[in-house]
Amino acid sequence: MIRKLYPYGKKKAFNVTYDDGVLQDIRFVELLNQYQLKGTFNLNSLLMETEFEWTHESGCVVKRLKIDDIQSLYTGHEIASHTLTHPYMDSLTKEEILYELSKDKANLERIFGKEVKGFAVPFDYYSELIEKCVKECGFEYARISEESYSFSPENDFYKWRATIFHCDGKLEDLVQQFVETDEELAMFQIVGHTYDLDIENKWNIIENVFEVISEQNDMLPMTTIEIIAYLKAMNKVEITNEYIQNNSEKSLWFSIDNVICEVKANEKYIL
Ligand SMILES: [Zn+2]
What we know:
Blueprint: E1 2-5, E2 12-19, H1 25-34, E3 39-43, H2 45-50, E4 53-55, E5 61-63, H3 67-73, E6 78-81, H4 94-112, E7 118-120, H5 128-136, E8 141-147, E9 160-162, E10 164-165, H6 171-180, E11 186-192, H7 194-199, H8 203-214, E12 219-221, H9 224-235, E13 238-239, E14 243-245, E15 252-256, E16 259-263, E17 268-270
Parallel strand pairs: 2-3, 2-11, 2-12, 3-6, 7-8, 8-9, 10-11
Antiparallel strand pairs: 1-15, 4-5, 13-14, 14-17, 15-16
Helix pairs in contact: 4-5, 6-8
The protein binds zinc ion.
């Protein structure tokens, strides 16, 4: 029996995706690093230059990180775009949307010296036009503001949903189900803003989750783009009764009759 696995023969993938680039990210990244987990951070480059704080509806003052603070903070994690200025995009023209996306991408690439391939939608408005612009700007995925409550990775990378919002009361139960699931290529992705953890006093819950996840030997911490790039490569595989043909530029992993096996880029594995 052949079962698809994540890199290094791991059965499951885990990721967190956090928006807005705020002060609480410092404490959050420390936690991620402590548990050797990986995050995706979705940033608004212009607001990090110009607008350092705003008042959340709870009354809490939220401070954005400044560009000088972030260069080393996110080392080892993914940086993705969240638009230049965090607009509600329903009223924007195509040109304005393209500008918000492409300028943020270019700024982040300049700041971090690395290609930015991911995009997370600001607020909750998404449309065919925005999706078209996301593709035109060269992003490989768009995370929308909706959760899946599922362990199956999305088929449509331009309507990518995280599994659950971090302050959702079902978080710990769903993590437990994830630990127990035997679903093929199961993944779990938590979405949020780190300031929510202050406002809702939930740092202990997120740390408990990180602890549980880090104890699982069959789970691989991955960034969103690492998961998506791997799934794209896996989508090209050809599996017959006689062989597994890897048609991608990445190594792919399988369990073949319970033996973990790596099929290297563009190689054919004879069964
Ligand atoms: Zn946001």
